[in-house]
Each structure stands twice: as C-alpha cells, then as structure tokens.
Predict the 3D structure of the following.
Amino acid sequence: MTQKKKVVAQLPETRREGDVTQRYALELEALAPIAEIHEVVAENEGEYIKGAKDADAIITSWGIRISKNIISQLDKCIVIGVGSVGVDMVDVDAATKKGIVVTNVPDVFIEEVADHALMLILATARRVKEQDQLVNQGEWFKGRPRLSRIPRLWGQTLGLISFGNVARAVARRAMPFGFHVIAHDPYVSELKMTAEGVEPVSLGELLERSDYISMHLPLNDETHHMISVDALKAMKNTAVVVNTGRGSTIDEAALIQALQDGQIAAAGLDVLEKEPPEPDNPLLRMSNVIITPHVASATTRMWPETRRRVGREVALALSGRWPRSCVNPAVLPRLPLERWQPYPMERGPNR
C-alpha cells in the first residue's frame, strides 16, 4: 500500500475541536485518498520547522508566516496552499527558487468583496458614520446641510487601482450608479478593461481624476505604500479612498495626515497596516472614516468553500498535476507535474 503524503496545517486554538479528521473534514474531501493532515502547533519558526520539515505540502492562511527561513528547511514540500487571494503569508520568491508551487483561492469570494467595496463607497459617499453620530448626538437638523455639500454619485469618476477579478466585479456594480469608471493596472490588457466599459489610465491620471478610489492590490515590494504622501497630494481634496485589498498598500501615517489636513475628504477601510488597530489610532475617531474588521470576504459560503478549494489545489499537486491557481507559474516547467487543463483555459496559473 502506498504511503500517504503528509500535509501540514495550522488552525487557531479556538477551532481545535474534535480530532484532526473532523477539524479538517473540508480539506480532506479532496485530500483523504492521497494524504493525511498533520496539525502543527507552533509559537515560532523553530517549532514550525520541527513539525513541517518533512511535509509534502503545507496549508496556511494565518499564524506563522512561511518565510524564506522556513522554506529553506523544507525537505520535500512541493506545494503550499494559501487559503486567501493574497499570498503575503508566504515568501513566494523563496518558494519559487526552492521549486515549490504556491496556490491561492482567487475566485471563491470575489462577489462578496466587491459587494463590500461598493458598500464602503456608498457609505463614505453618504457619510453614514457621521450621519449616525449626528442623530445620536441630538443634531438631527445638521445632517442635510452636511450632505448638501457633496455631489451626487451620478457623473462621478471611480478609479480602480488594480483590475483583477474583484475590481472588475466592482466596476460592474458601480456603473448602474452612474459612475464613470477608470482603472490602472500595468499587468492587464487595455482590451480587457475596455471590454468591461472601463477606461484604462496611468496611475498619475487616476489619482488626479478620481472622485472615489477603490484599491484592490496584492501586497508585494511593488505595491507597498503605493498610496504615499505624494499620491495623496495628487488627489482631489474631495476624493474618497476605499481599500479592500491589503492595508500596507497605503501609508497609513500619510493617510491619517491627509485626512486631518483636509487633503482628501474621507476613507472606507476594510484593511489596515496593523490589525487589529491600536486603541489610539486616529482613524478610529474620525467621523469621515468607516472601518470594518477585514471582513469583506465573509459570508456563509466563504470559509467552507475556501477550505475545500485549498484541499483541491493541494490534492492536484500531490497527485502530479498542475493546480488551477498557481501564483508562481514560472516554477511549473521545473516540476514533474502534468498540465491537464484544456487549451485555452479561463482558470489556471496565476488566476
């Protein structure tokens, strides 16, 4: 009988109920025929390496970051499955050099995040937090004068930074509200944008023209603090910034200063540089800032379907086939994995 592969995973302590097969039942729907899941409880890299050193695969979405140090000491790992769209939990460059496939779940909760982004756009546009505060403070009649200074959405320009799956879904939602949608993404064809009715522009033009800016960036060296002091200065002083991507794509100190100085008008944030924020974070006390606790993807479907998808991706690699969503496709030709998807394929590497 062929020995089953070893898959290492972590779960928060609050979810450690029942045995491993119960806790990881969703991942095991795909993995059970070929692998066993071994849970690692680790407080630091050393403890994690001890449990994961001989793993054939790793599943992660929280906890210990799979760093260059950890990756260098993995003896036979061929795939790291990440249970999110963003993969900043893994040093992807180190994994690529080591010949390890990194997968994500890029299309499981697109609609949910797009809904949340549009909610933040609408809530900041109508200053919902401030209006609620006025009612609770007994200032009923101050609400209308405040909103009377804000243009209606019809005819306003929405700028999308990055034009991946979520941004495209936001564009489709925003147009019926009367937005003119523009987007910047140097890695997406202009034809892809224009096919969605979206105008492709440079980043500088987007910052200057947009009344609302919605950010959908992954976090990497190129995107870290993309919204900086200079970027904020380039925006209209009536501009609103919404972020449902990654917190550190915005220089938070610069954003705070811009809001305090009236350099921009408002912000809607589902992600922050430090989560949860410190109690003294000025953003928490601003009436023109709406913050939600990194929940844009959360619905009844998200968590179970994400876990099933991770299990399927890892199972594909362990069974000798390309995963559907490889974020480092340059590694695939170096591995003895079969490309099984039909040509052309809408879903596949780097989707």
Observations:
- Residues 110-291 form a domain with the Rossmann fold fold (CATH 3.40.50.720).
- The CA atoms of residues 16 and 23 lie 7 Å apart.
- The mean pLDDT is 92.
- The chain is about 35% helix and 15% strand.
